[in-house]
């Protein structure tokens, strides 16, 4: 039977519709023409839209039972990925092995000829990496080439993001940056065809990675570009990440005005979205601002908890304890309640999904605080163990107020000077 594009063209002509009439306000004439001529594959959402416009069921556009089966598998996998926030949670999901087996069984059918095949190959590579399964038959670079052939340019950014993420987890920040810069160069000719959210992702990655290698000018450049895209197109996606990033930068520069401004933005975003991660970040941000800018240490323990338990509900945030316990620990240390600081931080560990130097430095700072508490309580061996963990943890990181704090704590414990 005819190809998908030919069937769409045939139905369009039967309905006596022009390209523009069928494209409507969801597609462009150019993209629809590419689809009809077999040079691009529509997403499932676009396919449903086209079917609705020509007055048929999606199944009427598909005559290949295998394609329908692949679409169903793709929908199942995409639903799984959307249900988790952190990638490490993929490994913990009981459905992953079953889905991976389904993908493996279909591997021979995934030749990269259709959007569904390419997308499933994409997921196959990702799941193989997450589950530590080796596979060398196809690489993410092959998938990138397939996406480029069907004009799925936004997916190219996502693939390079995966490659960068793998390097990032190994603390190879320069390698990760090279991948994203390659993505930026590769999509440059098609930039006008790429959706704004994908471009936001690109600039977010560049912002984060330039910060990781301490390139302040480039960090600010891409941060400004991202915020410009977001505000110009009224996109709320990623705004919380950018606001939190800018907030930490302002804290690091002891800029009270900017810190307070972005704290307000984080508050507004959390109230608007009621997102668990946003609420968790807000609790930390309030504690961080109060400790480092206001220096009102006694307010931190009760105020951060208030945000979680009173304002949003006790079950709203999964990772909140780690975030605000770090600030509680700091505040108890600052007012001289060393035992309470140690009790508060006793269960704190560094999650294996945190890899950015700034995030890690903030976490290591907590162990430096613990070291100082042990030292003031006379337990020199415990103090030495904690401070060496923190000191060596940030040794290769760019300079920051957190690294400076750790280094000063190290010197203090090393030379035996009591008092702050």
From TrEMBL:
Keywords for this protein? DNA-binding
Annotated signal sequence range: none
Start and end residues of each HTH cro/C1-type domain: 8-61
Please give the InterPro entries that the UniProt record associates with this protein: Cro/C1-type_HTH, Lambda_DNA-bd_dom_sf, TPR-like_helical_dom_sf, TransReg_Diox_bact_type
SMART domains, sorted: HTH_XRE
Matches recorded under SUPFAM superfamilies: lambda repressor-like DNA-binding domains (SSF47413)
Gene3D superfamilies attached to this UniProt entry? Tetratricopeptide repeat domain
- Which branch of life, at top level? Bacteria
Keyword Repeat assigned to the entry: answer is no
Q: Which GO terms describe its molecular function?
A: DNA binding; DNA-binding transcription factor activity
A GO cellular-component term linked to this record: cytosol
What name goes with this protein? Xre family transcriptional regulator /transcriptional regulator
UniProt source species: Ureibacillus chungkukjangi
The organism that produces this protein has a lineage beginning with: Bacteria, Bacillati, Bacillota, Bacilli, Bacillales
């Amino acid at each position: 039977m005819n190809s998908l594009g030919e069937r769409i063209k045939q139905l369009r002509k039967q309905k006596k519709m022009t390209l523009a009439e069928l494209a409507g306000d969801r597609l462009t004439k150019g993209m629809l023409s590419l689809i009809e001529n077999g040079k691009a594959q529509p997403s499932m959402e676009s396919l449903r839209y086209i079917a609705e416009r020509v007055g048929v069921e999606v199944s009427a556009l598909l005559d290949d039972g295998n394609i329908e089966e692949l679409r169903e598998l793709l929908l199942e996998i995409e639903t799984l990925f959307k249900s988790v926030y952190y990638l490490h949670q993929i490994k913990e999901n009981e459905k992953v092995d079953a889905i991976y087996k389904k993908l493996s069984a279909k591997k021979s059918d995934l030749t990269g000829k259709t959007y569904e095949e390419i997308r499933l190959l994409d997921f196959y590579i990702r799941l193989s990496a997450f589950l530590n399964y080796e596979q060398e038959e196809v690489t993410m670079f092959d998938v990138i080439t397939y996406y480029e052939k069907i004009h799925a340019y936004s997916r190219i950014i996502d693939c390079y993001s995966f490659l960068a993420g793998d390097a990032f987890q190994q603390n190879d920040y320069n390698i990760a940056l090279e991948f994203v810069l390659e993505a930026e160069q590769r999509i440059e000719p098609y930039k006008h065809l790429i959706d704004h959210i994908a471009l936001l992702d690109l600039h977010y990655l560049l912002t984060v990675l330039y910060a990781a290698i301490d390139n302040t000018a480039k960090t600010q450049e891409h941060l400004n570009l991202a915020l410009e895209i977001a505000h110009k197109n009224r996109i709320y996606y990623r705004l919380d990440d950018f606001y939190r990033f800018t907030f930490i930068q302002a804290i690091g520069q002891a800029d009270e005005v900017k810190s307070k401004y972005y704290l307000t933005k984080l508050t507004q975003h959390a109230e608007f979205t009621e997102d668990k991660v946003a609420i968790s970040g807000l609790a930390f941000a309030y504690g961080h601002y109060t400790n480092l800018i206001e220096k009102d240490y006694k307010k931190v323990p009760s105020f951060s908890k208030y945000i979680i338990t009173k304002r949003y509900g006790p079950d709203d945030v999964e990772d909140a304890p780690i975030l605000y316990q770090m600030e509680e620990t700091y505040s108890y240390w600052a007012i001289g309640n060393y035992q309470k600081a140690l009790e508060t931080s006793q269960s704190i560990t560094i999650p294996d999904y945190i890899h950015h130097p700034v995030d890690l430095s903030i976490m290591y700072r907590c162990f430096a605080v613990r070291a100082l508490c042990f030292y003031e309580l006379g337990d020199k061996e415990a103090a030495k163990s904690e401070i060496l963990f923190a000191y060596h943890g940030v040794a290769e990181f760019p300079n920051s107020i957190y690294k400076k704090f750790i280094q000063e704590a190290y010197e203090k414990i090393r030379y035996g000077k009591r008092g702050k």
